[in-house]
Design a protein that fits this description.
The structure holds 2 protein chains of 2 kinds. By secondary structure, chain A is α+β, with helices and mostly antiparallel strands. Helix content of chain A is about 40%, strand content about 30%. Chain B contains 5 helices and no strands. The chains are: A alpha+beta, B mainly alpha. At the A-B interface, strand 1, helix 2, helix 3, strand 2 and strand 3 of A face helix 4 and helix 5 of B.
């Protein structure tokens, strides 16, 4: 009896470990950004977006319900279809050097190889700008994306979890929100006209 | 029990009613007449008592009627209450649905905002990295 109980306990522990490992693997693409919260007091403008779980599903459901055969709406649907979470923290400051290197390093340490790959890096020492894009690959699919923009008066971390169609995001139109699109286009036309003058 | 002939003869033999028998009989007759006059009053009293207690004799019918009225009353009240509860539940459900819809719309707007920020920042980084940004750029797409 004891032997059987022990075997069952071992199997159960093994299953739990496997489950937790799988769960951990799935959550790897989400960064811990809580250390940046302290910057909210110093920042002139804060953008904080946390969309995951049921809330994101609601959003995806609503976006998928948009009855618009517009190419951009279709593109939007394709982008959000396989997303699991969107987390953004963006701080804009009135003065330079309001955040420390340690704040940025705390993000970078979570983006270590081999899982994360830095696909783009841009450094401008004259303006103290360090911009990076990281991708998390899961076999041949993208499992996460991080855009880190660290400038003199701005610190932005965009963390998208899930199968992110990177090329589609970059190619998105600026004003694709239904109803706002026309307004955006008109605004762009006005801007272009103004530039021509 | 057996009676002998002598016993029967003794029992059935004529007896003297005693003196004043006729007077006694007549007195009884008078008394009976007097009682006969008062009989209707007694009967009326009895009738009155019966009328007052008549409902008691109809007890089952009354009980059924009262029960039916109570049943109808409680049934109507219960129906009204259930209708009220249903209306309240529907109201709460509608409010909840409206709240969910608002949350979903907010989430949709947030998702769109987030994707716009992601797009803007990505193109910003690509421009800074001197990778031309734009929908038709093949080099950038290949690098990504």
């Amino acid at each position: 009896m004891n032997r059987i109980t022990r075997t069952f306990a071992q199997i159960l522990i093994g299953m739990l470990l496997c489950l937790s490992a799988t769960r951990g693997h799935g959550q790897d693409a989400r960064l811990q950004l809580a250390n940046l919260d302290k910057l909210s007091d110093k920042a002139a403008r804060v953008t904080d977006v946390t969309l995951d779980g049921s809330l994101l599903q609601f959003a995806v459901g609503l976006i998928e319900k948009i009855n618009d055969e517009d190419k951009d709406v279709e593109q939007l649907k394709a982008i959000v279809k396989n997303l699991k979470g969107i987390y953004i923290k963006s701080f804009e400051f009135d003065e330079a050097s309001q955040y420390s290197k340690a704040d940025v390093e705390a993000i970078r340490t979570q983006l270590s190889a081999p899982r994360w790959s830095k696909i783009v890096q841009s450094t401008d020492k004259r303006h103290n700008e360090h911009d990076e894009i990281y991708l998390l690959k899961d076999h041949d699919r993208v499992a996460g994306l991080v855009i880190l923009v660290a400038e003199a008066k701005e610190l932005t971390v965009v963390n998208i979890v899930g199968d992110v169609p990177v090329d589609k995001i970059a190619a998105m139109e600026q004003h694709f929100v239904p109803g706002q699109k026309e307004a955006g286009r008109n605004k762009q036309k006005k801007e272009n006209k103004h530039d021509e003058e | 029990m057996h009676f002998s002939e002598d016993d029967l003869r003794e029992a059935l033999k004529r007896k003297d009613p005693g003196s004043g028998f006729t007077q006694r009989v007549m007195a009884r007759v008078e008394q009976a007449k007097t009682e006969g006059k008062t009989e209707p009053a007694v009967k009326a009293k009895a009738k009155k008592n019966n009328g007052f207690l008549a409902w008691w004799t109809l007890r089952p019918a009354w009980i059924v009627a009262v029960a039916a009225v109570l049943l109808l009353g409680f049934g109507w009240a219960g129906y009204q209450y259930s209708e009220y509860r249903h209306a309240e539940e529907m109201k709460v459900a509608r409010e909840k649905q409206e709240k969910l819809r608002q949350e979903a719309e907010k989430a949709r707007d947030q998702a769109i905002l987030a994707l716009e920020i992601a797009r803007a920042k990505m193109n910003h980084v690509l421009q800074h990295a001197q990778l031309p940004a734009g929908p038709n750029d093949k080099i950038r797409r290949q690098r990504l």
